[in-house]
Amino acid sequence: MLKGKTVLLGVTGSIAAYKTASLASMLVKQHADVHVLMTRNATNFINPITFETLTGNKCLIDTFDRNFEFKVSHVSVASAADVFMVAPASADVIAKLANGIADDMLTTTALACEAPLILAPAMNTHMLLKQVTLDNIKKLEGYGAEVIAPASGYLACGDTGAGKMPEPETLLQYIYKAILREKDLAGKKVLVTAGPTQEAIDPVRFVTNHSSGKMGYALAREASFRGADVVLVSGKTSLTPPLFTKFIPVVSAKDMYDAVMEEFPDTDIVLKAAAVADYRPMHVAEDKIKKNSASSVLEMERTDDILAELGKQKRDGQFLCGFSMETKDMLEHSREKLEKKNLDMICANNLKEQGAGFETDTNHISVLTREETISLPLVSKEEAARQILDLVVDRIS
User: Fold this and answer.
1) Cα 37 from Cα 6, distance rounded (Å)
2) What is the mean pLDDT of residues 165-188?
3) CB 216 within 8 A of CB 274
4) Ramachandran assignment for 359, one of left (phi > 0), alpha (psi -120 to 50 degrees), beta (any other)
5) Do 215 and 362 touch, CB atoms closer than 8 A?
6) Which H or E run includes 279?
7) Phi, then psi, of 239 in degrees rounded to 5
8) Taking the C-alpha atoms of 37, 119, 108 and 19 in order, what is their torsion angle to the nearest 10 degrees?
9) Would you list the domain boundaries of the chain?
10) Of 115, 281, 306, 370, which is most buried by a Cβ count within 10 Å?
11) Overall CATH class of domain 6-179
């Protein structure tokens, strides 16, 4: 995913430095060119050989090291960088960066670097909460750096509180957001719905469907990487909400309808990937419940058609994309929905096709607009999300 990208990792004196080795390994597996810069204090916590083995590049520590190719190293790596992440970032290095002090390889390179700067503070809780540290962090944010909020928990010093560096998987997501995609959705608000809804039959049982939410979550994540302001309205799933989104959990179709209608007026793009329970139970014959035959005696009524209502309210400039899961006559039924619900695009797949049904990690989608039908190959849902948003961007540009 990061082929052709150059990532600088700054490592400072903190026990959390061991996590950065895992991050470096993850980045290399994504085909990034990774260069690690360490402070002298950092070498007391982790050996530079570790990073050199993982990245295949010399670990940079000494500004005046003569054992290198003749280039001004802090300038050459700074010029090549697509992103510079300092993780862990100690209070000392945060203070230096906030005040333009460049007295070692890491801080000199950071001052020379024009790429996005991301900092992951890691320190004792009392150090983190000192006003001078908070002021330095605020100053760096004012200069355009992104500072990742530390996690809370048991710290190496024995205290409990804020100051833990987030896990490498989280740090990787911040790097993705910075450099994975062009910011072609910057300034756009994208509303995504995902997952199943549940309609209660009684206090114990409910009507639902098999939606996993994976497609909707992939769309929300991809839109955030492209710079969008993302709102994700989701029914109950086993998935972790993606970072960089406003997450609104819902249960019933009515809950989803209300949440979507509240967010819709100032939304630019809607991607409705949720599988809503179309009917809600109205009544169950209690005497037949005891015979375990409730399914045959439910009185049902249709839930509100969220997509149709959005189509009615759509204003000029809004882009509405629906999703259609069919078992037969996929293209015909999907085009009917496109026209009837006043959509700009609809993504259709066949439930019976292998690799394109519920709870899979892949999808085979046909994208329909009023002018054309585009068949996408069977790919991961993450790749399908990228291709779908490419098509959306082409049509709103």
Assistant:
1) 13
2) 97
3) yes
4) left
5) no
6) strand 279-283
7) -85, 150
8) -10
9) 6-179, 189-396
10) 306
11) alpha beta
Residue with tokens 């492209």: 226
Residue-wise pLDDT for 19-72, tens only, equals 999 999 999 999 999 999 999 999 999 999 999 999 999 999 987 665 555 454
Angle, alpha carbons 310-312-315 (nearest 5°): 80
**Inter-CA distances, 5 with 32, 180, 372, Å:** 5, 9, 35
Per DSSP, 12 falls in state -
Q: Classify burial at 372, counting beta carbons within 10 Å of its beta carbon; exposed 0-12, middle 13-18, buried 19 or more.
A: exposed
* pLDDT value at residue 133: 97
Q: Residue 275 gets which letter from DSSP?
A: B
Residue 81 has pLDDT above 80, yes or no: yes
Write the CB contacts of 111 (distance below 8 Å, at least 6 apart in sequence).
97, 100, 102
Q: How many Cβ atoms from other residues are within 10 Å of residue 216's Cβ?
A: 29
157 is catalytic: yes
Question: Is-same-fold flag (6-179; 189-396)?
Answer: yes
Domain 189-396: give its CATH architecture. 3-Layer(aba) Sandwich (3.40)
HSE toward the beta carbon, residue 12, CA cutoff 13 A: 23
User: What pLDDT, on the 0 to 100 scale, is given for residue 72?
Assistant: 47
Q: What are the φ and ψ backbone dihedral angles of 243, each rounded to 5 degrees?
A: -65, 165
pLDDT at 70: 44
Question: Looking at residue 203, what is its pLDDT?
Answer: 85
